[in-house]
Structures are given as C-alpha cells and as structure tokens.
Fold:
Amino acid sequence: MRVAALLILLLTSPLVAQQQPQTQPQPEPPKQVEEFVPISQLPPQDQLPAARLLVTAYAFVWVALFGYLVSVARRLSKVQREVDRLESDIARGTRT
Structure:
C-alpha cells in the first residue's frame, strides 16, 4: 500500500509542477523623493520613532558605563586589600 501511494505521488508530482502559477500584478515601487519632505508630511510607515531610539541608546550607554565603573571599583578594592595584606606581612617580617 505504501509503495502504491509513493508511486502515485512520484508520478503526479511532475504534472503539478508543470502547472503555471497565477501571477498577480506587481505593485509599483515607491517613487524616490528628490527634495526635502517634512516628517509631518510623510506617511506613518516611513516615520522612525527617533525619540524612543535615542533614549534607548543613551540608556544603554549609561548602563554600560555604570557596569564598567562598578567592575573597576570592585577590582580596585581587591587590589587595595592585597596591598594592605602585603604591607602587614612586611611589617611582621614574614614572606608569602
């Protein structure tokens, strides 16, 4: 039964592939604007949400800068603890 179904599928697939697809008329591409057009006169799909993008970019930069400063502060405190430990070892006269 499976062989018969596979054989029918293989024999009918070239017939289906030869059928011409119905073509729909292609819409005209939008015309290029040669001069300045104020944003208030542009259609909504052509307008970019500039304020939202700008705020998002500044927020990302501030968060990245804050994360970097926290990272530097943590590493600096770790180095300071190590320096303090070494100074106390030198004062006691022991070597590590």
Summary: The mean pLDDT is 81. The helical segments are 2-18, 50-92. Residues 50 and 56 are 10 Å apart (CA to CA). The two ends are 83 Å apart (CA to CA).
